[in-house]
Amino acid sequence: MHVTISAISQSISSLEEELGVTILKRSRTGAVPTFEGEAIIKKAAELLQKYTELKETAQSCSEIVEGRLRVATIPSPMFLLEKAVLDFKKQHPQVKIEIVEQGSQDIIDDVLNDKCDLGIIILFKNRLVEHLGLEFERLLKVRMVAATSIQSPLAFQKIITPAELLGQPVVLYNDDYVKWFMDEFQEEYGAADIVYTTNNRALISRACMNYLAVTLGLNYSFVTEPLFTEYDTVIMDLDLPQQSPVYLGVIQRKDRTPSIISRQFLERLKRDISELQQVI
């Protein structure tokens, strides 16, 4: 923040003298808030949030949006974000946009610690975030499907059963939800022949095309970022009637009013997702 440590220390000392309380307890190992300091820091954070809202109100009046947008996402929705980000940046060139790909737990932690504004994750029955102080807004209902080469013996099927899947070599994308899904699947139906798990989509594609392996993924991912051309592959539903509803969605902190930048970008993203829903 381009401020020296001594300047910060002097500012805190001046504030303590003005308020008549000790905010930080200092020692050779560092400084920690006092009981009174924790209350002061909480109020200061609230004031900063209100000041941010004040600036945003002024920006909305002038129709000039400035600031930054920090988005953390699991890997699979990246292609969903691409068009929304480029269009949003074109409309608001003065907004600095940062996007990172992370695992779901890292995204949850970053949103809680105010390291990102929006977190895009898959929410399923074993992952509840509301009790953490987060809000989850559903963007897209999704389901797990299987894909393989058109040359596979399974190519003329629209549905694959658990027994059929267990009889095939399987390659998987390294994703939190895919891992959780396969763990649940194997606990219910037995061990699958998982050849490897990778973040390299080309390796998955080659295994399916050259060795007739089967891969699993969320249905929208095969539309937004296809592993194969539509003439080389077949997408099959899984014969698993007990599948629980699964949603792609966005998480934000409950105790923060979303910035005008976050709100406008999210509305832009929802329009793209609405168009995608008509395809999948």
Automatic annotation (TrEMBL):
Source taxon at top rank: Bacteria
Claim: Transcription regulation is one of the keywords in the record: yes
Cited Pfam families: HTH_1 (PF00126), LysR_substrate (PF03466)
Claim: Coiled coil is one of the keywords in the record: no
Keywords, sorted A to Z: DNA-binding, Transcription, Transcription regulation
Transmembrane segments: none
Start and end residues of each HTH lysR-type domain: 1-34
UniProt record similarity statement: Belongs to the LysR transcriptional regulatory family.
PANTHER family, per database record: HTH-TYPE TRANSCRIPTIONAL REGULATOR YBHD, NITROGEN ASSIMILATION TRANSCRIPTIONAL ACTIVATOR-RELATED
Protein name as it appears in the record: HTH-type transcriptional regulator YwbI
